[in-house]
Amino acid sequence: xxxIGITCSMDEKxxxxxxxxxxxxxxxxxxxxxxxxxxxxxxxxxxxxxxGFIIPGGGDIDPKFYGEKNIASKNxxxxxxxxxxxxxxxxxxxxxxxxxxxCYGMQLINVFFGGSLIQNIKTEINHTEGFHEIExxxxxxxxxxxxxxxxxHHQAIKTLGKDLEVFCKAEDEIIEGIYLKDHPFCVGVQWHxxxxxxELSSELWQKFxxxxx
Length: 213
Prior knowledge:
The protein has helices spanning 19-27, 43-49, 79-95, 104-112, 199-210; strands at residues 3-7, 9-10, 15-16, 31-35, 50-55, 99-102, 117-118, 131-136, 145-150, 156-157, 164-170, 175-180, 186-189.
């Protein structure tokens, strides 16, 4: 039995995670293990039993985490979630086990490595809903191609974090995918592959779970 660790959203009264994530994990024959901020106390034990790590979507990271004032961020994620995910990310990076950041998760990876965010995108593409085309121009983690992905965000990467590389963008130059150099699989994507049935999302999941040992 192999577990995939996945963090979750939270408010003052509850933790929550869209069911699409657990369905996708089970589809590949693994079991989801939902990780909460309180579990940082046992993070050394967690990393021993978890074979891969997913940071799912969420709200907006407080701009103080990348040294800016809040001018357009909404639905701010509680500090305790951000801070605990930084801890989990650090220990999973050192374990060299596969990591996947989705939407907010990609943005968190970028901020962890010292990057910053566009607090509200203003381009010709509507990134808050629907679908748009992206271009993949690196061979890792996906094959070089163009494709359509879903979109559900109003923030994006502004300054790229240290040691991160961009592998795909939208036509308006908004970054849609990043990876960490010299790591077997630490990847972030701006779209939501857990609820996307396209070829790119399918390939991404296959590449992620192929790295799980």
